[in-house]
């Protein structure tokens, strides 16, 4: 295990997970690494994105968080906001430099994840922000393949 890697959460991960801005500011003021990872290689920004904590995400980014950091599955904070359909948060992340065409370890872009989660609105949203709707995952499948596959369960 790397020196900066916690098995569960670092104190900063915990502060972010409960959306305690006061605690997060105090920890960073006293030297907490804003890009510290847990055992899944998630950073505090991943947690902020997963929980739709836009103000916390903004603070972490201003404090130097890597907006395109990848977890052990190759997913960035942007990937974390997509399944929950956090359009405001994902737009914010993209406007601050998140790569809309970023791929995870399976080659999936945020388009694939949006299609997998049956979110036509998110797909339109990413397309309007310059994402590649025709991107292929490691199996050669496009977001359209994912959408068709998931239509059976809609």
TrEMBL record:
Annotated Gene3D superfamilies: Ankyrin repeat-containing domain (1.25.40.20)
Record keyword Transmembrane present: no
Superkingdom of origin organism: Eukaryota
ANK repeat locations: 7-39, 40-72, 73-105, 106-138
Pfam families named among the record's database cross-references: Ank_2
SMART domains membership: ANK
UniProt keywords, alphabetically: ANK repeat, Lipid-binding
Coiled coil, from the record: none
GO molecular function: lipid binding
PANTHER family associated with the record: ACYL-COA-BINDING DOMAIN-CONTAINING PROTEIN 6
The name this protein goes by in its record: Ankyrin repeat protein, putative
UniProt organism field: Trichomonas vaginalis (strain ATCC PRA-98 / G3)
Lineage: Eukaryota, Metamonada, Parabasalia, Trichomonadida, Trichomonadidae
């Amino acid at each position: 295990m790397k020196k900066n890697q916690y098995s569960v959460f670092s104190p900063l991960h915990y502060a972010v997970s409960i959306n305690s801005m006061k605690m997060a500011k105090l920890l960073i003021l006293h030297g907490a690494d804003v890009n510290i990872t847990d055992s899944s290689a998630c950073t505090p920004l991943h947690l902020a994105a997963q929980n739709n904590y836009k103000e916390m995400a903004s603070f972490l980014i201003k404090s130097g968080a890597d907006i395109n950091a990848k977890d052990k599955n190759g997913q960035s904070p942007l990937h974390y906001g997509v399944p929950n359909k956090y359009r405001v948060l994902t737009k914010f992340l993209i406007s601050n430099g998140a790569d809309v065409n970023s791929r995870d370890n399976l080659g999936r872009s945020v388009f694939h994840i949006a299609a997998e989660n049956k979110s036509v609105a998110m797909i339109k949203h990413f397309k309007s922000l310059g994402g590649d709707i025709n991107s292929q995952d490691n199996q050669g499948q496009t977001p359209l393949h994912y959408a068709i596959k998931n239509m059976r369960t809609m």
